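Below sits the subject:

***
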Amino acid sequence: MRYVSGQDRDQTALFPLSLEELVPADHPCRVIEAFVGMLDLAELGFIHARLGKTGRPPHDPADLLKLYLYGYLNQVRSSRRLERECQRNVELMWLLGRLAPDHKTIANFRRHNGVALQRAGAGLVRFCQHTGLVKGQWVAIDGSKFQAVASGKAVVRAADVEPRLARLEERIAHYLAQLDAADSQDSDSPIDRSKVQDALEQLRQRREALIETGRELADEKHTHVVTSEPDARVMRGVGPGYNLQTVVDGHSAMIVAHALINEATDNRQLQPMAELAAQALQVQTLDVLADAGYSNGAQAAALEAQALLAHVPANRATNNQADGTLLPHTAFTYEPQADVMSCPQGKTLTRKQLMRRDHAVVYQAREQDCQHCPLKPGCTKKKRRLVRRHLHEEALQRMHQRATPEAMRRRRCTVEHPFAGLKYRIFGHPRLLMRGLAGAAAEMAIATTVWNLKRAMAMLGAQEMRRTLLA
């Protein structure tokens, strides 16, 4: 009995196989080829999309875009790994026509085309909307944290930035003194002092930027700064990272809009993300679902004025003087003509304080009214009752009423799915490779486009998707 044997390496063929024969008809490479082919890269703003009259011809940005889409589709994001794949991967040989760009060219394309990459992803969303894959009737918003390329060791307290950099300058001065001593003893020293001075100037510029960042963060009451990546913020459970905000279509689970921010909380993102989704879908009305972390009365009111209806549970503070069993604020009635609140016993609470940061007004009862009130033991443990009312209370209530249990169930089933796909099917590990907010946003633009391509192929099939793109 013999083993299955392969072909002899030295055997020649009269009709050798072509690359076209090695790539199946339903392969994702063909979808990537068709998608990039339908884009006007010059209009989207890709560099080198229009050739100059002189100089060495550059790589076609279409080829580099195909390379990155293929790489992220197969969890290959490093420019050096992509360079190696171009030299050995038959699928990439077919996709790029046997081109093998060096890793520097590959990396520079991603670094310099962040905005254009986002526009390309938006073009795919519009295409899917025209074909009926994206309905745009309702969307779900959520955020998830992604680890930055910076190490956790780079995190220091904002107040410690200047002292630490001062110690670094002392070490640099000591090093320069050693160089001067070496120069005086050996005139044939190979050290290029001009390069040393250039490096020192870069360090000084970096120092000033870090000091300024530390001061800004201290003013904003941030306690920590990431010295190697000032754009990143310390996120709970992640360390230095960014917060990815996504808007997901309820029908297709495609990401119709996204934004990468360095705020750890979501309570200021409801209006920006809803408006971004309406712009991407080019619709006048839209139902927007989100969790209680997006509760924001002022933004809910602003969205209602634009016919964008938020379905978000109101995130209210409870009466925390006891175990949450005291009389809630909803038991009090607001009288807009007199701008006062009335308690269940008919007593009046007058305006005490405007809390601009929280967009709320505090009303207080008279101390003598509370002392003789039979409801006081179940209302407050203090001498008088205080009630806080949001400036946009009516909009907050309408937003809360729209957030039915069924709506929240649909939100969970819709918006959580893409995060798992992005982190563990596209990134492989939810850690970014590029520094700075702009670099991280460029990576996320590629990843979200790849996610949408995967969803479209799952819904239509690769061959039908390719035919639709070429039509």
Observations:
- The mean pLDDT is 88.
- The two ends are 53 Å apart (CA to CA).
- The first helix runs from residue 19 to 22.
- The chain is about 45% helix and 15% strand.
